[in-house]
Amino acid sequence: MVYKSVRQPKISDAIIQQIEEMILEGALSPGQRLPPERELSVKFGVSRPSLREAVQKLVAKGLLTSRHGGGTFVAEKLGSGFSDPLMALFESHPEAQYDLLEFRSALEGVSAYYAALRSTSADKQKIRHCYEDLQRCHDVRDFENEVRADVEFHLSIAAATHNTVLLHMMRALFSLLSHHIGDNLSKIYPKADYRRTIHEQHGLLLAAIEVGDPVAARQAVQDHLAYVEDALLEQGKENTRVERALRRADLNLQDKTAS
To answer: Are residues 48 and 121 in the same domain?
Structure first.
């Protein structure tokens, strides 16, 4: 029988493993600043040289970035699988926006389903906190922050699935779609009834997750995104009608001027 020697892992490697797990689980988010070196070494119960070595290796891996005199951060571009040039293509092809909504419906439907099934009480508190932040922005009509809060609400649901791949797919998707969501809402939010209905749909999604009903949670997402698509289509038709009316008015004015 062959015995393999048991080697004690290096302290820095153990630190790396913990930080990598925190990034995977979503406890550390892209762009988040890590505590100062002295504080972090106390939290891990390790020496500062061991921590420094671990951070240097994580920087080399592209998971962390260090700014001279500014601290250490989780890499901003972590998980940004969708590129800006691709975003520009989506924006220049209106039909692709509906493909994005369809894709969101599939991905967020799964996310809501597993969040309702697996979320802990702490997860539900986080989701409710994000919803209440969204409510505050909605009440004061702070559109820019409402878009941010909308994204955070959906990401908190993804985190509650306890599926690391799904969480980071959602993060990559929403880093791409933050502008897309804002553009969509800017088109339909001027109408109070659209805005109110969309916010009510977020409330239904929250309620389904809180009571642990995965089927209702998935359906709430699908109903929400189907409504957004219908609202965008209707708004597009209305814009076309307005443009036609303006063209007719312009032609009539030209005829009167000519006569």
So the answer is: no
Which three-class secondary structure state does DSSP give residue 160?
A: coil
pLDDT tens track for 138-184: 888 888 888 889 889 999 999 999 998 898 888 877 766 676 677 76
Q: Say how many CA atoms lie within 13 Å of 76 toward its Cβ.
A: 2
Cα–Cα distance between 123 and 206 in angstroms, integer? 12
DSSP assignment letter at 6: P
Question: Are residues 68 and 91 part of one domain?
Answer: no
Q: Comparing C-alpha atoms, which of 22, 122, 36, 129 is closest to residue 78?
A: 22
CA 111 – CA 70 distance, rounded (Å): 35
Question: Is 43 in the same domain as 137?
Answer: no
- Range of 52's domain? 11-74
Nearest to 107 by CA among 167, 184, 21, 25: 167
Shared-domain flag, residues 113 and 184 = yes
Residue 253's pLDDT band (cuts 50, 70, 90)? low
Total domains, the chain: 2
Distance CA 54, CA 78 (A): 18
Residue 255 lies in a domain: no
Residues 133 and 235 in one domain: yes
- The pTM of the full predicted model, rounded to 2 decimals, is 0.71
Helix residue spans in the chain (DSSP H) = 11-25, 37-44, 48-61, 84-92, 94-118, 121-139, 143-159, 164-188, 192-210, 214-258
74: which strand partners? 64
Three-state DSSP state, 65: strand
The answer to whether residue 3 sits within a structural domain is no
Helices 84-92/94-118 angle, 10° precision? 120
129 located within any domain: yes
